[in-house]
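Notes from hallway chat w/ T.B., transcribed later so I don't forget. T.B. wanted the structure written out for a chain they're using in a teaching module, and asked if we could keep both sequence and structure tokens in one place. Agreed to drop them here.
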Amino acid sequence: MALPAGTRLGPYEIVSFIGAGTMGVVYRAHDTRLGRHVAIKILPPAFARDPDRLARFEREARAVAAINHPNIVSVHDIGSADVVDDEQGATHAAYLITELLDGETLRARLAAGPLSARKSADVAMQAARGLAAAHDRGIVHRDLKPENIVLLRDGLVKILDFGLAKQAGPAVAGEQETMAGTDAGTVLGTVGYMAPEQVRGEAATPRSDLFALGAVLYELASGQRPFVRPSPAETMTAILRDDPPPLATTPPELAAALDRIVRHAIEKDPDYRFQSARDFAFALQAFNDVNGSGTGTAAAIAGRPRRSRAAWAAVAFLALAAAAALAWPRTTEAPRGAPIVFAPTLPFRDANLTSPAVSPDGTRVAFIAPDRDDQIVVRRLDSLQAEPLAGTNGARAGTFWSPDGRSLGFFAGGKLKTIALGSGTIDEIADAPSAYGGTWGRDGTILFSPDERTPIFRVSAGGGAPVRVTTMDPSRHDEAHRWPQFLPDGRHFIFMPWALGTTVRTIQLASIDGGPPVPLFDSDTAAIVAGGYYVFARDIPSRLNAQAFNPATYLPEGRPAPIVADDNIAYLWGSGDPQMSGSASTLIYSTGKYRLGRLRWHSRAGQPLGTIGDADVYYDPTLSPDGESIVVEKRDPDRQATDLWTVDLARGTFSRLTSAAGFENVPIWSPDGRRVAFSSDQGAMANIWVKNASGAGTEEILVKGRAFPTDWSRDGRYLLYMSDGGATHFDVHVYDTERHAATAVVATPFQETDARFSPDGKWIAYVSDETRTPQVYVQSFPDGATKIHVSTAGGDEPQWRGDGRELFYLAPDTTLMAVDVQARGSSLAIGAPQPLFVTNTDPPNVIRNVYSPSPDGKRFLLLAPLVPHGTSPLVGVLNWAAALPGR
């Protein structure tokens, strides 16, 4: 359709021709009503003739018009009119009115050659921000390509043709725009920029747009399309199967860093791409921050989302870390200069990476990614993305590197395995049902702790029969030896003797050549070997320490010294896992042992109904039987401990219940509300104590031996608790307060925890991992003759409604579930679980309760963390030993 100047379409008068494409012809036009120049696109005649297509176009145009973002072209109007053109005569045309842009498409700009790495990143960053704004409104572009992105003269980037169905048209070599449509199985988009899922005929999603933008970024920086082939069919095959050549750009030293961002965007599997356009933009922003460039226009800066001072500080730390990493020599020697603290998981949205393992040269870190089915990912510290390792799903804590940094040892599927990073080859080395750490020596020997109650074993990295190298000492109450770490000679190693309930362990020095171990120092965690130091954590305060050792004898020299000014170090005291790793240059550790939260009431629909007290560090809140008070564990920062407090809900007053040294936790009420039972580490291990709820008098031991109370029967006779049973792991026990005797209620080779009495005392609900996934069960009490599986897809923390006619529990995604319960003689009728609302609580940071239901089940008291659920607590320190005494 060719329209002469002066042609009118409603209030718009054609001024001059701009260009033509498969989506129509574009003209400069004059808006006679508002007196401004606009762009008018005359859509293909098929739109005006097809009512369904026209209606869909109008809906999508209205949706895009509602977006007000500097990186998306503004849509002003849509309409239709009868026009006469030189080719078709009289016809009815549909049109779209947008802002008039002063610039050129990226396709036109690429005619002059590729852009620099920094400019390419800047353009893609702006486009990603525009995509983020659209995706927030549920709009997917579906056909992002250089023709649909305009670079204005002032440097601002604008995305065109958002959300519009595409029309068949002429193709460049190896590219083709496919037929319009949104039905399942219809291929939609431009072949060279389509994501694999679009090639397969699946629906486009926001991550499909990220793939397209990644392909555009590759072309901007290299001048070459990443997947173009002689024909569309071959191009589609390349998208599905091939990876483009390494990115070549200017300056060359930035090519590798930008290439890693591109490859994260064009992953074949959408789950492995950036989680969102906003994350893509953040990665590009960080890249340019590190490399001295960014968006230079005032308009683009105005369009950036505001970030808190802490967020910008995190970006600055990341920039410092990446800059330092780029300059590191590839050696195990520590760089000189002051320590640099940074956030090792930024800029990823899926930042809840766990179990860090630092490579011997300090330049890479392996993590476990819970959001990717516990897959291992490896990140270079000079990179903005982590690379997933295929075949490592289901990994457990304890990943470790080979001395040459070319392989990783890991535990998954009940096995000790190794993976060669170059080829991806995985070998099974030995059985390791649970596994508590491993280490790889210079001669190919691997030391590992294979199960919950085992000593340390050795095995060749090439396979063979494992051989025991340590012997547990009953006089020390050893129950396991865990978390071995080789020393530099490859013969000596350290390990942690473990016994449940003890909080302080003595790190031991041993040799694979035999001989009795030598005690070194006390620690609350296993220790790691980093440079010439043992690094470990001690509690009260929770602090990270470095202990220098003699390089000839490996015995400690001098006194341990704190590494960073962080008194909030996190570790897993139950297993001894230090949750840290290091080399001579790089240290990654976990922080956030104490996490601020609020005690908040919610309705059954999840609506907030008010809070109790101020934000503080709380654990295990429990409502009293009458619903008028709560008891909660609360941190005492002055004493570096936690104590129990009761709260009068009517008056909102907090009253201290305990003040003993150490930690008091998992409180439960007696049925009359006059006493509180709890676990405390006042003695050598966690025992169950009881005290008057008023706080008067002294507490008394009720049950001895690594026990944690979970419930008290309504008649006051029985106390349920969970305790470690050795070979049977955690079991459910009951203490008879009349007979002063304890018996096991559920004791199997699996973990049984969180048992609760039904109000009539005839049933207990509890959690078991007998199917590998924790599930909620109900069992008759006291005979145990009847057992019912309650949860259907995983469950934790079961709690009964006051009348026993409903059972609540938490699903794995923290959704609060409700199950109808009806008594049927000597059995129960259990209904199908129904979701109430997503709690966004943080179950791993409590022993028992993150919620407590009111007696009538109409309200729920939640322990709501102030930081997002799953936020990573990892902290990195470069050149960490520089400030230690004697350095």
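Follow-up for T.B.: DSSP finds eleven helices and 58 strands in the chain. Might be a good example for the class.
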